[in-house]
Amino acid sequence: MIKLADISTRAPEGLEKASSVKERKKLAQRIGELQHLLYAEAKHSLLVVFQGMDASGKDGTTKKIFRNCSPSGTWAYGFKKPTDLEFAHDFLWRCHKLAPKKGHIQVFNRSHYEDVLIQRVHKWITEEHALKRIAAINAFENLLQFDNGTTIVKFYMHISPERQLEKLQERIDDPTKNWKHNPGDWEERKHWDEYMRCYEDAINRSEIPWTIVPADQRWYRDLFVARHMVKVLEALNMQLPELPQ
Questions:
Q1: pLDDT (tens digit, 9 = 90+) per residue, 105-153?
Q2: For 123-141, b where at least 16 C-beta lie within 10 A, e where not — what string?
Q3: Has residue 245 been placed in a domain?
């Protein structure tokens, strides 16, 4: 049972920023090499999910980790409020059509979990409805994994409320970050405790496990995700195709 309050949001003591950034850059290069193999072999697909509170680093991590990957085989999509067309379908419709085909990496910045989390926090759906949606998500992810061979990697960006406050304020104080400012982020912050309850419950009910990423320090957050992604990709044991003899 995962208890978010018991997991640190910061790097281990003694870890140096400079050496960590250097390692992360090397790992990002390795991820680019492995993505090339994935694309060429076209036997596997990868769905990478980033979930977390506002300002937890979903965009920044995506940029740092996949910067050496070819855009031909690596796509990123940011989920926002559903459109009228998406509202007219079941909640998974907009996600299923974005599932990666073989040879491709699809990154979800937010994901199908949005329709459990925000809906549940604001009481727009009942608890019973939320639990049925979580069951549907498990079925959806199992379908992708076992029917199409899609490897699913889910990262929860574990930021502290104190660090989130600093980053939200930066978006007001720093002119280069003003474009990120959204008054709604401050409103959602008021529901922090309820979000933590709903995140924790969704994580613990998930059949495909989540990786909890300490997200207070950008440099360690990115290194943590890079290390995990290299392990996942190398475990696929991919090879460049050869001409038949």
A1: 999 999 999 999 999 999 999 999 999 999 999 999 999 999 889 999 9
A2: eebeeeebbebbebbeebb
A3: no
